[in-house]
Specification:
Length: 464
């Protein structure tokens, strides 16, 4: 998808330019020293000028590592172009500006070694990118529904190189299309799509280009997708049968529509959020958490028998199960994984009630955040029983699992925390979770954290 390529492209571009610049500066200082010069203020000024010129050459030359059709000779050409311009401009600028210069032979060797190291670094990065895209957990399994020209173009884009990161399993249509290559298997008629998805859980994405006269079939596929963590993308105009807001995307020159705006599908946003999670959770775990752990452990051991921690399987990112860690606030009981806590729950101890009202019981989830099962902010993870029940009762319930669950969330600070006695309460929570997914930004996360802390300090009547 174009937004994904652009996201990864920006990260790879910054990383490549930074590595190139470090290579150039390191080699420049090394060659200056080998030429008999000491690292002086004049040498430092020459190094700064060299770095500025090389950075300009890198920006002018561009970085193409993230593009799927790029070959080794393309990378070699870009680097040689950069180095040639760099050699001419830097030699002229250093001479005119009266900066320290290396002897001619040493300069030629310097530019040659910089070119060799830059090519080697870029080819290594390219190799790593290929390996990442082809790793089992990074492959995006895709099925196509309909065989119009747009879907054929999407197939060709995805199969242009083996490093695309997509695996097209085949296509569905009312009859086999002779224009489709033999490598793209005909899987059956569109009414068989949901059965195929049920039997092939590895499928991540569905690209549909059926016309509006197939409204019922399309809606059936959409309904299954949004309730089973499958991303549905509609390629043609779907305004005649789809009343949900749609978002326009591009896969190179091919347009398609998605059901939701997903800021966290952009790699740099995921990187920003993950970095924030690691830094904040890491700082908390090595500073305040050990003190909290000692106090909770002592009081828990004095007030109730049993373990200090409570681990419960919950539904996480993309519907995967994980163990959510909490301080145990209830007596050991057989209903821990099936019965939600209530306001006057007899299973809670007095100390457990205090922990739940102050959110102390949730603090071990920062371990889940640090290891990557959760985020600090996101939809609250539900026990497996609730996921199974509510996914059948609430349409689009599973959409909340498109992003990582959180220690706190938008729904929790906007009135949908605590026990869900009525179905509308869970429906409101799900709507809030989807709203957060579509409107994510780092400032929103910070605001939610602020609201969570404020609710703890002033007291939250829904905390029990």
């Amino acid at each position: 998808m174009e937004k994904t390529e652009n996201g990864y492209g920006k990260i790879i571009t910054v990383l490549t330019r930074a590595c190139d610049l470090m290579i150039c500066l390191g080699l420049y200082l090394l060659f200056v020293k080998l030429s008999g010069e000491w690292i002086s203020e004049a040498v430092r000024r020459s190094a700064v000028m060299t770095a500025v010129i090389y950075t300009a050459c890198l920006i002018h030359g561009g970085v193409i590592l993230h593009k799927r059709t790029i070959k080794a000779f393309n990378i070699l050409f870009i680097v040689m172009q950069n180095i040639t311009i760099f050699a001419i401009v830097s030699t002229f600028a250093l001479y005119i500006g009266g900066f320290i210069m290396m002897p001619l032979g040493m300069s030629l060797l310097f530019y040659t070694v910089v070119a060799f190291c830059s090519v080697s670094m870029r080819l290594t990065l390219r190799y790593i990118i290929k390996k990442i895209r082809l790793s089992k957990n990074r492959i995006r399994h895709v099925v196509l529904v309909g065989s119009s020209e747009n879907n054929l173009n999407i197939y060709n884009e995805m199969k242009m190189t083996t490093q695309s990161g997509f695996l097209v399993e085949g296509y569905f249509d009312f009859a086999p299309n002779p224009n489709f290559p033999e490598q793209c298997k005909y899987l059956g008629t569109p009414d068989k799509v949901t059965d195929y998805l049920k039997n092939n859980r590895q499928v991540h994405e569905v690209y549909c280009c059926l016309t509006s006269r197939n409204r019922d079939v399309i809606l059936d596929i959409i309904h299954y997708s949004v309730n089973n963590v499958v991303h549905f993308y509609s390629v043609p105009n779907v305004s005649n049968y789809m009343h949900h807001r749609m978002y326009f995307n591009m896969l190179n020159n091919v347009p398609y529509l998605s059901l939701y705006r997903e800021p966290l599908s952009i790699p740099e946003n995921r990187l920003l959020k993950r970095t924030f999670d690691i830094v904040v959770s890491g700082l908390f775990l090595v500073t305040l958490f050990p003190i909290v752990l000692i106090l909770v452990a002592l009081i828990t051991k004095i007030t109730m028998p049993g373990p200090i921690f409570f681990r419960q399987k919950r539904t996480g990112y993309n519907g995967k199960e994980f163990y959510c860690i909490k301080f145990r606030s209830m007596k050991v009981n057989s209903q821990a994984d099936t019965l939600q806590a209530t306001k006057n729950d007899p299973r809670k101890t007095k100390w457990g009630d205090i922990m739940r009202k102050t959110n102390i019981d949730e603090l071990p989830q920062f371990v889940n955040v640090f290891i990557g099962d959760m985020s600090i902010v996101g939809p609250r993870p539900h026990m497996l029983k609730h996921t199974d029940e509510y996914s059948k009762l609430i349409d689009m319930y599973m959409v909340r699992h498109y992003i990582k669950p959180g220690v706190t969330g938008w729904s929790q600070v906007t009135g949908f925390r605590g026990e869900t006695k009525e179905l509308y309460q869970m429906e409101g929570r799900v709507k809030g979770d989807i709203w957060y997914m579509e409107h994510w930004n780092l400032w929103l996360d910070i605001y939610i954290i602020y609201k969570t802390v404020a609710n703890v300090l002033i007291g939250d009547k829904e905390a029990y």
